[in-house]
Design a protein that fits this description.
Layout lengths: L1 E5 L6 H10 L3 E6 L2 H8 L6 E4 L5 H9 L3 E4 L9 H18 L6 E7 L22 H12 L6 E7 L2 E3 L6 H12 L2 E4 L5 E6 H14 L5 E4 L2 E5 H12 L3 E4 L4 H5 L2 H5 L8 H7 L8 H8 L3
Parallel strand pairs: 1-2, 1-4, 2-3, 4-5, 5-6, 6-10, 7-9, 8-12
Antiparallel strand pairs: 9-11
Helix pairs in contact: 1-7, 3-4, 4-5, 6-8, 8-12
């Protein structure tokens, strides 16, 4: 099938697109810049590049309508304007869903597992929290699922907050830069709180499986490790940088970590048991701690 992929040039998108091509699908990929277009072209010579961004609703509508399915990975990662980014994402999402309404085409939405009460195990069918960091994206997720009653094969993939691999520009890399700045790798309190993780390559395979085999209205978890203690993450970074590993008092965490303190202090384990059982997805790539030590660049 011809699949429209937003965020195709991103950290996860550049694993999803090769998975689709390898499985015989055609890809139309959204590119917001010349740099994004060049990244996409390196993934395959037959990819149709669609110039535009998440605010270009006419382009999203036209391309979604002209495709056999959609995988929406794109998101504006400006955490200083997180609410605005979430609302832009919601408008783009609804535009693409409306474009394929009544066609029974597959639509795969990307969200995250940080939608549950801290300290509880996030599952594919569990009750989400009605407040907190993930509220806006949780509401968008609910909108997506509602389109199962509007002739869309609506599907959701929740990514672990730590998607890791070589070239990671996100969470782990930010922690590494923080450790470089302070010349020590920190964790908050006793560091027993857990973060789920997934390799970007395992995540890429899951998106393809969900597109092809996902059950209408279902939610799936891209989680390779249910929970890695933040003390172990800090330890791996300390080993990588050869700096001390220290506990940061919770009261001092915002000063040390900046905005990351809000996220890094959460206890947010997540399960992918149902995803594995239903789709036969089995993560096989390197785990987070070993990946940091072996593959991240100082």
């Amino acid at each position: 099938m011809k699949v429209f992929v937003t965020g195709a040039s991103g950290f996860v998108g550049t694993t999803v697109v090769p998975e689709l091509l390898k499985s015989g699908h055609q890809v139309a990929a959204l590119a917001r810049s010349d740099e994004a277009e060049q990244k996409i072209k390196k993934l395959g010579s037959d990819i149709e590049v669609v110039r535009g961004g998440l605010k270009d609703l006419d382009i999203l509508k036209k391309t979604a309508a002209g495709s056999d399915g959609v995988i929406h990975l794109g998101f504006i990662h400006d955490f200083s304007k997180y609410e605005e980014s979430c609302l832009i994402d919601r408008e783009a999402t609804i535009t693409m869903l409306d474009a394929i309404k009544g066609t029974n085409k597959p639509y795969v939405q990307t969200t995250g597992t940080l939608m549950f009460q801290p300290g509880t195990l996030a599952t594919e069918t569990g009750d989400k929290s009605t407040s907190g960091l993930g509220t806006l994206r949780s509401q968008t997720e609910d909108i997506v699922v509602s389109y199962k009653d509007k002739g869309v094969r609506a599907l959701v993939v929740r990514l672990a907050p730590t998607v890791h691999g070589k070239g990671d520009p996100n969470f782990v890399n930010m922690l590494i830069n923080t450790a470089k700045k302070h010349e020590k790798s920190g964790y908050i309190g006793d560091g027993a709180n857990q973060w789920p993780a997934v390799s970007r390559w395992d995540a890429g395979r899951l998106f393809r499986l969900v597109l092809e085999k996902g059950r209408v209205g279902a939610v799936y978890h891209a989680v390779g490790e249910q929970g890695v203690k933040t003390k172990d993450i800090a330890g791996a970074i300390g080993q990588l940088l050869k700096v001390p590993v220290v506990s940061i008092e919770p009261a001092n965490a915002p000063e040390h970590f900046g905005f990351l303190a809000t996220f890094f202090g959460l206890d947010s384990p997540a399960s992918s048991k149902l995803t594995r059982e239903e789709l036969g997805w089995e993560p096989k790539e390197i785990n987070l701690v070993d990946d940091i030590v072996k593959n991240y660049v100082v």
